[in-house]
Amino acid sequence: MRKALFVLVALIMICGIAFPALPATADVYNFSIQLLTLDGAPPLNPPAYFNPITIAGDCGSTNYVGQLNQYFVHIDWGDGLIDDGIVPNIAQSGQGFSGTWCSASHSYSSGGNYTINVILYHQQYPGAECSTEATCCVVIPVVVAGSNSPICQGGTLQLTGGPDCMSSYHWTGPNGFTSNAQNPSIPNATQAMAGTYTLTATYPNGGQGNATTNVIVSLPPSSTITTPSSVCAGSTGHTASVPDAGPNASYSWSVTGQGTLTGVGNQSSIAWNALSAGKATISVTVTNKYGCMSANSTNVTVNAELIATASSNSPAYEDATISLFGGPAE
Q1: Under 8 Å between Cβ of 283 and 300
Q2: Predicted confidence (pLDDT) per residue in 36-60, tens digit
Q3: What is the CATH number of the domain that holds 243?
Q4: Which residues pair with 33 in a beta bridge?
Q5: 134 and 148 housed in the same domain
Q6: Distances in Å between the alpha carbon of 319 and those of 159, 312, 313, 315, 322?
Q7: Are residues 37 and 92 in the same domain?
Q8: pLDDT tens, 117-126?
């Protein structure tokens, strides 16, 4: 039996994959196959479907070899599973034939991107005769929900839902929150907005999927500084502290003016010394483990160093009044 070479007779563009036409020769049987529908409609762009999917298409030839009942359809679903020996519904048309290949359904075990290959062949696959192939990109989406959590109180909560090709999105969450936007945002976040947000997404064929995301809204850490309000010039060993901001927090201290920082500055408390009379400014920025920040500063009066003096009206006459004088005066 003469081997038949089947080639495409036209450009087939399905889900971005093109099959160019090949030139015919005296020994070539012009053959074509198309994927017309997926889940009962033309393939979507972008493609997005939900289990199970159903595909169908048509086929034709201007010439053919053998008998019509010797032609079959082979489907590679792209996940390692194959359906073979599907009998197409074809009838003779002139020197060739035309018709449809029976629809086929398949369920995927998990979401992802799959490429479906549909091949019409003669007698045996893979056989000596070449076959033609129609390819479609299929996406079985996994619904995902996310956010920019953790966020600081007063910031904007940004929820993100996916994938992009769903028919609809519906969010629910704490504090009575609802939204039909795919990626809603909530300004001026408060701790009442913390908790679990649920996304329900509707697939193009009507099925639904759900996903959740947990949101943390953090209060800013305290940056209230505790330190003496006044010290003497040249005095040492003073401390300044803020409340502990918890694990993985950071503290950035500075002492300017008539004061100087001593020791390590990335702690909730520091030591500092006074310099000359005037004013020392102690500043701190506290950042908690969520990145929330709080800054504060306080001024400390540095008093001039006092030099004590003592004097009297000595010498004095017997029975006179002795007067003592101490300084400096206030």
Answers
A1: no
A2: 666 666 666 656 666 677 877 777 7
A3: 2.60.40.1080
A4: 59
A5: no
A6: 94, 16, 13, 12, 9
A7: yes
A8: 888 777 776 6
Which residue's entry shows tokens 């993985």?
A: 248
Residue 11 is encoded by which pair of tokens? 């450009």
Residues 88 and 110 in one domain: yes
Sorted by sequence, the CB contacts under 8 Å of residue 307 that are 6+ apart come out as 328
Reduce the DSSP state of residue 223 to 3 states and report it.
coil
Is 188 a domain residue? Answer: yes
Note the pTM of the prediction, 2 decimals. 0.57
Query: What's the mean pLDDT in 272-280?
Result: 96
Q: Are 201 and 208 in contact (CB under 8 A)?
A: yes
CATH number at residue 112: 2.60.40
Question: Do both 240 and 162 map to the same domain?
Answer: no
Q: What is the dihedral of CA 239, 244, 249, 255, to 10 degrees?
A: -20
pLDDT score recorded for residue 276: 94
- Domain extent at residue 109: 5-140
